[in-house]
Amino acid sequence: MAKQDASAPEFWDKRYGERFMPWDAGGVPAALAAFLAQERRPLRVLVPGCGSAYEARAFAAAGHDVLAIDFSAQAIDLAREVLGPHAGVLRLADFFAFDPGAPFDLVYERAFLCALPRSVWPRYAPRLAKLVVPGGRLAGFFFWSDEVRGPPFGLAPGELERLLMPWFERIEDKPVADSIPVFAGRERWQVWRRAV
Ligand SMILES: C[S@@+](CC[C@H](N)C(=O)[O-])C[C@H]1O[C@@H](n2cnc3c(N)ncnc32)[C@H](O)[C@@H]1O
Mean pLDDT, the chain, as a whole number? Predict the structure, then answer.
């Protein structure tokens, strides 16, 4: 597979290896912190394309049962350092191919859909629909842009709805105030519920 193909782990290995990670927030976004603060019961959570895994660490520290996957071995090495005592939540795995064992209550999205070439997007929602329990949620940050080249590959207006419906219905949609520069003004926090 070509080195410039974002659907190949080598593309991401190279960037993590060089510590060139303009998408990395180096911490937990405010909307996720607020979400974690209001969740009352432990959830089974999947973090696909976890990268350096600050959010996976926050889910684990809050008592949730987390599986954080990434298909880049370099990302997993970095995440292991960030997760410290919670490193057991990590798995080197491809989102489209791994065996989850059982479906999840929640999938956390940040900079994962926009990391996938647009040609791969039609596979995203059907795969999520299999990974989330009926009534479960997809929560996180989504990125809009008409820039042809990526990553990040941005959504067009109405495109997220076309991708996720009818498997999911949107139940929350908020602007984001603490975006890092690559996403600033072009991302929103949204929560989608899996149809029962
Ligand atoms: C832009 S980075 C975002 C990382 C992290 N979510 C964050 O917000 O910092 C995208 C990540 O998705 C991973 N990735 C891309 N396609 C994947 C796939 N099919 N399965 C698992 N991980 C994948 C990449 O290796 C990379 O770590």
Answer: 97
